[in-house]
Amino acid sequence: MRAEHLPFDGLRVVELSSGIAPGYCGKMFVDAGATVVKVESAEGDPMRSWRARADSRPGALFSFLAAGKKSVAHGESNAEVMSLLAGADVVITGRDGRWDPSEIAAAVPTSAVVVVISPFGDSGPYVDIGLSANEFLLQAMCGSIGGRGWPESEPVQAGGRLGEWFAGSFAAVAAAASVRRARRTGAGETIDLSVYEAMAIAMGSLGAVSASVLGGDAFGTRSLELPSIVPTADGLVGFCTITAQQFQDFLVLIERADLLDDEELATMPGRIARREEFLTMVHDWAADKTTAEIVDSAAAFRIPVSPIATPTTITSIDHYAVRGVFVEAADGARAPRVPYRSPSIPVRPPGAAPAIGADNGRVHWPAAVAAEPAQSPPRLPLAGVRIVDLTAFWAGPMATQVLAALGADVIKVEGVRRPDGMRFAGGRPPSWDRWWEWGPVFQCSNTNKRGITLELSTARGRETALDLIARSDIVIENFSPRVLANFDLEWDVVHSVAPQVTMMRMPAFGLDGPWRDRVGFAQTMEQASGMAWMTGSSEGAPIIPRGLCDPLAGLHASFAAIAALEIRDRTGAGIHVESTMVEAALNVAAEPVLEYTRNGVELRREGNRGPGASPQGVYRCKGDDQWVALAVFDERTWLALAEVIGHSELAVDDTLCDEWARRGRADEIDKLIEGWTSQENPEDVVATLRAHRIPAASVVGAADLLEDEHLTARGFWETVEHPVIGTFKTTGMPFTYAGGQRKWVTTPAPLYGQHTDEVLRDVLGCTPADIASLEEVGAVARRPAGL
């Protein structure tokens, strides 16, 4: 069945804030059919004048984020804005002083959802520094910068302001779920979302949770992946070897099968200890081979591999061309399409960005009729939704974890022969009792779920899975495309058995195209999307941001799943949705390709520098591997910094009068700054800089987040009691509901098969004899096979 309307057709959204996070949140609603009105001053949204480089025309990024939106410019009177608010279903705003969130909440209908996006949320020790914290400083604070690079060099940021895109994605998911509840109960919501907390989840939580689960700093000294990005005869190629088998296959690929029994090289610490030796043999092997030759060979071994996408090459990559991933935007740029698709969701070309005030006097929303909210609306917006979770690793489990936190009953299904691989990653050795329960990634991405075992390769397991799906609302999977075909569980089968069920598929590269059957992890997506191209020192090779693509893919799939429920509720039929990892990454990494195809400007990595601030960087302090990050956004701050570092002559130097002028002498300025910071410890440097209202932060490791005073005060870390591990801290959600309890985690990640009997009995009506029969034929199990 093909829907005639997009999922959120008729939804009325007011966007009252500037920046990537609110802009992308609004774009996700536009893509799903909502009418989004951008409220601007007479001068326009500051994003209109953003330029990524001095020689670039402004507007490329704004045009992408504002495509299809309307613009209302306000003057001294806010009458038109207040009229819009009175008829709004969703309001996206911030805490930047332009609009008071409490006044907005008072102006909107009781059924409206207000999402407030700010650096640190509405409370906590860091709120006062919120307006002087950009993405770069938040990366220093959340453990991202501190974990990236080799110990002898300075740590480096993830390029492209990826955390802001991630926060906008999280805001869209939270708002979409709350819209669903508001439509059914009349109860609106105010959502307080912290960009810092969102970034802590995506860019620091794995190291922090690992430290909490295992003790100490499990991730240790910062490092880079080995193997990762390698020069070839005609460019660059990226590898990823997550599993032991993939690394063994990699050794065969590079013609070093003689090292298959080298136990030290098989471990990441061993490869790091022998870094020069390892890199020399990999580079020597690749030097006389083309990127295409290496990609074909590695793909044949099922080693995750990708050419390194650049702004000049990305649109011509064969997989993207065949699938039509890049589309012509109204401003002439080539832009990534909406990262999910379905035969039941109409495809619309991207709209144009509006001129300032283009829609003044043209948007007439009747004030919402005040409805009496349900007497006892559910506390969580997805209460009553049941999801069959066939996902593994991090991207898929992240999607279902968010939906579970928002109230869905998520039943995680693991195979008897192949449980979720993250159970075995980074935890305890096989000599430990129930060692498969210790995987930190598994623990932090499967909270609030019920866990059962079902071996889908058996007739009884498949039959039971179909029975469970038939009693659910959504089934989500992230296998390679061929796997469901092998199980005979593709869409036609599911839809015939359960016509009301939506099937959400999360393949790495898609259900069709030249890369359809390739294996891909987050690192591969970062190499294939251009994220790696934007990360690293200006004179060095690209490096991967590390891990962000998994939670990004999860959030886009979560949003698509909620949108699909809107169609199901309207039509009565479930739909088939494809939400790929790589296309979520391409949307978030869009700026370089937009700049190149619109303006002819080829962006590239700049180490810790970046547009919007100069100087900006990390500077060595007194002590062993101690660093501080600072960023100067305006002339007042520049003058203050010159005085603090003891170089007042800089303040009267006319050749350093603005950001772009200072960027031309950045090396010289950085040396002067580090001449001061290197004599002080980072705590004193940060205290001095902040006392002069100069944005600064210590560069911390991921494990340090466990004791971060702001995250602690906000209740970000949630303590769980696990029957095997004991007590440890894990992450909840990066937002709160106004007036609601912060706690998001009600149960830890399930033990292997913990809820098998419960679900089979209570959901499917199985008797003890039925369950025993399933166990006898190997369809269910109490422990993973072979262990």
UniProtKB/TrEMBL annotation:
InterPro entries: CoA-transferase_III_domain (IPR050483), CoA-Trfase_fam_III (IPR003673), CoA-Trfase_III_dom3_sf (IPR044855), CoA-Trfase_III_dom_1_sf (IPR023606). The keyword Transferase applies. It holds the Pfam family CoA_transf_3. Keywords: Transferase. This is Putative acyl-CoA transferase/carnitine dehydratase. Signal peptide: none annotated. It comes from the Bacteria.
